[in-house]
Each structure stands twice: as structure tokens, then as C-alpha cells.
Amino acid sequence: MTEPSAAPETRYVQTPAQTVGPFYGFALPYDGGAELVPGHHPRAIRLHGTVFDGAGDPVPDAILEIWQADETGALPDERGSLARDGFGFTGFGRAAVDLGGHYTFTTVEPGPVAGGAPYVLVAVFARGLIHHLFTRAYFPGNAERNAADAVLTAVPAARRHTLVCVPEGTGPTGAASYRFDIHLQGENETVFLDFDA
């Protein structure tokens, strides 16, 4: 009598979308990732904030990615986000938060794309998230465009403020500074967006 042959062993390997931190700070940050433009750029702005959990505590191991248009509203098609040359603008940035949950990007204020309101698309990777979250950061100086933006106006009025940056005058380098805090849960939860595949 022969024994039945064993089925071949199957190895299942975790992929980044199935693995929940804290590998983000080890594998994803790179030098210059948070500097879409150099700090001395004449129209550089500082986009910064803190990532909070549902209890209101800072998340110390999150990573944020941003995508945006340039100042004229053009979507960049230039390569070079991982090796910035100080001249080209790729519209992509990646920043790890510090132990206090704070992040900072140096970029430019985007122009309107296809007549809509200017915004920065933000992706959040953090502990406890099986998949990253998407949100948008709008700018308060565009009240008329913001009031007509299809995405922003689809959000209940009482929650729209979670998608609008707070101006803070100028930052340490003299650049205009905008705060965009992200609350993953809780009373002040940031509005997050779904994308159909």
C-alpha cells in the first residue's frame, strides 16, 4: 500500500499592504523626501502637522505621502522624487513623523487643477491600518473655489474644516506656514476618502 503524496508546501509571504507597522520608519523614508522644493525656493511653503490617534495621542510611527500639482495647477510628469536635483518639481513627497507625531513638508502652494480648488492629496500609513488612508488638504485662501469644489462640498458642512489647512503666518525660514493635523479617529476625525478601483 502506498502512502498518499503530500501536497506541495505553500509559503505565504506578507506584503506591505498586509503588514501593520512599525516597519515604516525603517523602509520608506529617504533623504530629501519631505522637500518637494528647497527651503530657499522663493515661493516655498511649510505644510506641517501632527498625526493623532483616536485617544488624541500623537502617533509616533506614521509616514505621510503627498501628491500635488505645481503652482500653475499642472500635474508634474517629471521623474526624480528619490534623487532630487533642486530644480525639477515632481509633486511627490514622503515624510516620517517624529516621536511627537509631527511631520513637515517643504513645497509650493498648488494651483487649481481643471478649475477645481487647489489641494494636496495626503496618504497616511500608520500602525493599526491594514491599508493606507487618503485625504485632501485644501488651502483657506481659496474660499470661492473651495465653496464650489465637488469633493469638499460633498462633505457635511460640520466636517469640512478637517480638510482645510490652518494658516500660521511664516515658519522658521520665512516661508508661509500651514498646519494640517490628521486625526485617525475620534471626535475630530479627519475626513478620509475612498477611491474606486
The CATH architecture can be given as Sandwich
Superfamily (CATH H level) name: Aromatic compound dioxygenase
Q: In percent terms, what proportion of residues is strand? A: 25-35%
Which spans have pLDDT < 50 for at least 5 consecutive residues? none
How would you classify the helix and strand content by structural class? mainly beta
The largest sheet is:
5 strands, mixed
Count of DSSP strands: 9
Query: End-to-end span in angstroms?
Result: 52 Å
The total count of helices amounts to 3
Radius of gyration: 20 Å
CATH hierarchy, class: Mainly Beta
Number of domains: 1
Describe the global form.
globular
Helix content: under 10%
Which series of helices and strands comes N to C? HEEEEEEHHEEE
CATH topology: Protocatechuate 3,4-Dioxygenase, subunit A
Q: Give the overall average pLDDT.
A: 86
Brief descriptors of the model:
197 residues, mainly beta, Protocatechuate 3,4-Dioxygenase, subunit A, 5-stranded mixed beta sheet, 4-stranded antiparallel beta sheet, globular, single chain
Q: Would you give an account of this structure?
A:
The protein has 197 residues and is mainly beta. The protein has a single domain (18-183), classed as Protocatechuate 3,4-Dioxygenase, subunit A, CATH 2.60.130.10. Helices cover 8% and strands 26% of the residues. The protein has helices at 24-27, 143-148, 150-154; strands at residues 44-52, 63-68, 92-96, 102-108, 119-125, 133-138, 166-170, 176-179, 182-183. Strands 1, 4, 7, 8 and 9 form a five-stranded mixed sheet that branches. A hairpin with a 7-residue loop joins strand 5 and strand 6. The longest helix is centred in the C-terminal third of the chain and has 6 residues, at 143-148. Belongs to the intradiol ring-cleavage dioxygenase family. Residues 44-112 form the Intradiol ring-cleavage dioxygenases domain.
